[in-house]
Design brief:
The protein has 588 residues and is α+β, with helices and mostly antiparallel strands. Helices cover 45% and strands 18% of the residues. The chain folds into four domains: 65 residues, 2-Layer Sandwich (Alpha-Beta Plaits); 174 residues, Gyrase A, domain 2 (2-Layer Sandwich), CATH 3.30.1360; 169 residues, Up-down Bundle (Multidrug efflux transporter AcrB transmembrane fold), CATH 1.20.1640.10; 74 residues, no CATH class.
């Protein structure tokens, strides 16, 4: 029942997502199966030379950017001094910008802010620069706004898309006239005070009050390293005492302002909270830009084009055919080995397939997961892992039946023994998948992800479907009485009687009126010598005549005593009969 509710809720949420969100009834496909967008970047070092180490660092950070944006199965490689980025499907403009833009994140003080449209100057000519310019006292000093800078600011049109591409000159020691990245405002900014390399961590979430109560507003939490903490304390100490807009500092990425929060306090611990009219998406985007916004390189986009699938639908079709063949072989083996019991394996595999498909759809919708060919391979491998769990359980049940237990008892005893084995086996598989996922890159991570996912689903199916179904089947006559086609016939399994103590043996497969007894128990037989070749192996409902307690040819001490006691009783009965006959003869 719980599993049915879980599956119903899973697909109900996906169906609702197709109506009111962007969910789909088909999983997203990775670059190797669907194609996508390829961007070739040429790195340019801002300091020193472009080295293999800086390119490797750039690839790692770009991959973090892409993964954090929700795109999976992206291919990011180096070709000589170029970096080739392949994004599956149709990536969003935000994701493409994360790849295209250079990673120079800088913090500048705000000197002035204005509307994005240009301002018509009332002067007929640009005023001349003063002969003795005033030296600014600090980066927030308005004396930095020279007539030339003011004229540039007035003429800037941030509604023009050409002014929102970024990548313009950004001298860290000079003021900067620029636009907000969304074109809603334009700024004059002071010199750079903190580099983005001083950021140690940035994350998004719901804001809280000092008492820990949620404010219901999305915020971005920012942390600096030691050097950044010291510099940020100096900056906030100065900005806190200034009027607006000079009390704000701008976060500048690739020459454009992505945010300009104001300083409401002096921050001495290097931990800041950026609040405003954030949504979940905009807060997450800003956190990603801050987290992965610093690289020792800038990029020139050499080309950007759509590419077709490198493997395509033909390879996917072959992979699915391979999986179908493997599944068919498992079904045939299960039916041949376990007869009707094999249908439980088939049903369990079907439930596992439904759950896997539903979870992949959910992940494609919520986190942008995309299924690659290695991911399909991981699902195919999971067929064997899942079937192995059922086989372990069924064989434990059959072992208990061989020992003379009834099916009800065998199901529970077998589950107690099989459960530990299944948990240990799946734990090893899951651990291997986790290690492989974190140590590998590219398509191998797709294989590891689906392998780990299907391992967890295997546990859910075994615990919430296979075991409960076996408990129900143990109450049916077909399985409980050991029908030859059930796969649980004690006689076919070679069941024998077993010693139950106090000179008694247990017959396999016989249940009492309640259907819950372990086995029928009777005195050990002595009609034939122990180990006699004429003894029979007792099945469900069979007679105990000639049955023994084992195949070793030896009797236990208790069995010998029971046999002696039975022989004495039989001898006494014979003597009594003879005496009675003699008395009758004398009376005649």
């Amino acid at each position: 029942m719980t599993l049915a509710v879980l599956i119903l809720a899973l697909f109900a949420s996906i169906f609702a997502g197709t109506k009111w969100s962007d969910a789909s009834t088909t999983p997203g496909l990775a670059l190797d199966l669907e194609g996508g967008t390829q961007i070739i970047l040429t790195p340019v070092a801002t300091e020193g030379k472009v080295t293999d180490e800086t390119i490797t660092q750039a690839i790692n950070v770009i991959r973090q950017r892409v993964d954090s944006s929700g795109v999976t199965e992206a291919e990011i490689t180096s070709q000589g001094n170029n970096i080739v980025v392949g994004l599956p499907g149709t990536p969003s403009d935000e994701t493409l910008d994360l790849v295209r833009k250079s990673a120079q994140m800088r913090f500048r003080p705000v000197l002035t802010v204005g509307a994005p449209t240009p301002v018509e100057s009332t002067e007929t000519e640009t005023p001349a620069e003063p002969e003795t310019p005033v030296t600014p006292a600090n980066p927030s000093d308005l004396a930095q706004i020279t007539p030339a800078i003011q004229a540039e600011f007035d003429a800037l049109d941030c509604t023009d898309p050409a002014n929102l591409t970024g990548g313009l000159g950004d001298d860290p020691d000079a003021p900067l006239v620029t636009c907000a990245d969304d074109g809603t405002a334009k700024y004059i900014l002071g010199p750079v005070e903190i580099e983005g390399t001083e950021i140690s961590n940035a994350s998004s979430g719901m804001g809280t009050t000092a008492q820990g109560v949620s404010t219901g507003q999305w915020v971005v939490n920012l942390e600096f390293n030691k050097a950044g903490t010291e510099a940020f304390e100096v900056v906030t100490d100065r900005l806190f005492s200034l009027p607006a807009p000079q009390n704000a500092f701008a976060l500048v990425l690739d020459g454009l302002v992505i945010s300009a929060p104001s300083a409401n306090a002096v921050i001495t611990d290097g931990k800041a909270e950026i609040s405003g009219s954030f949504t979940r998406e905009s807060a997450a985007l800003l956190a990603n830009q801050l987290n992965f916004g610093s690289l020792p390189l800038t990029f020139e986009v050499q080309s950007e084009q759509q590419i077709s699938a490198t493997l395509g639908s033909e390879q996917l079709e072959k992979g699915l055919i391979a999986g179908a063949i493997g599944l068919l072989l498992v079904v045939i083996y299960s039916l041949f080995q376990y007869r009707a019991l094999g249908l439980v394996t088939v049903a369990s595999l079907g439930i596992a397939a439904v759950l896997t498909f539903g979870v992949i759809l959910l992940l494609s919708w919520t986190i942008g997961y995309r299924l690659s060919l290695p991911g399909v391979a991981g699902i195919i491998v999971a067929i064997g892992i899942t079937a192995d769990s059922f086989i372990v359980y069924f064989e434990r049940i059959r072992d208990e039946l061989r020992d003379g237990r009834t099916l009800n008892s065998a199901v529970e005893k077998g589950w107690d023994r099989a459960r530990r084995t299944i948990l240990a086996s799946d734990a090893v598989n899951f651990l291997a998948a986790v290690v492989l996922y974190f140590l590998a890159v590219g398509g191998v991570r797709g294989f590891a992800f689906t392998l780990g996912l299907t391992t967890l689903i295997d546990l859910i199916v075994v615990f919430m479907f296979t075991h409960p179904v076996m408990q129900l089947l143990a109450r049916t006559k077909f399985f409980a009485n050991g029908h030859p086609a059930s796969g649980l016939d004690p006689r076919r399994l070679g069941a024998t009687t077993r010693y139950a103590g106090r000179g008694r043996v247990a017959r396999p497969g016989t249940q009492d009126a309640s259907g819950t007894s372990d086995a029928a128990v009777t005195d050990a037989p002595v009609d034939e010598p122990f180990g006699s070749p004429t003894r029979e192996k007792v099945g469900a409902g069979a007679s105990l005549s000639g049955a023994t307690t084992g195949d070793s040819g030896r009797m236990t001490i208790a069995e010998r005593r029971a046999a002696a006691r039975r022989a004495a009783q039989d001898s006494g009965s014979t003597t009594d009969s003879s005496t009675e006959g003699d008395k009758n003869e004398e009376n005649r």
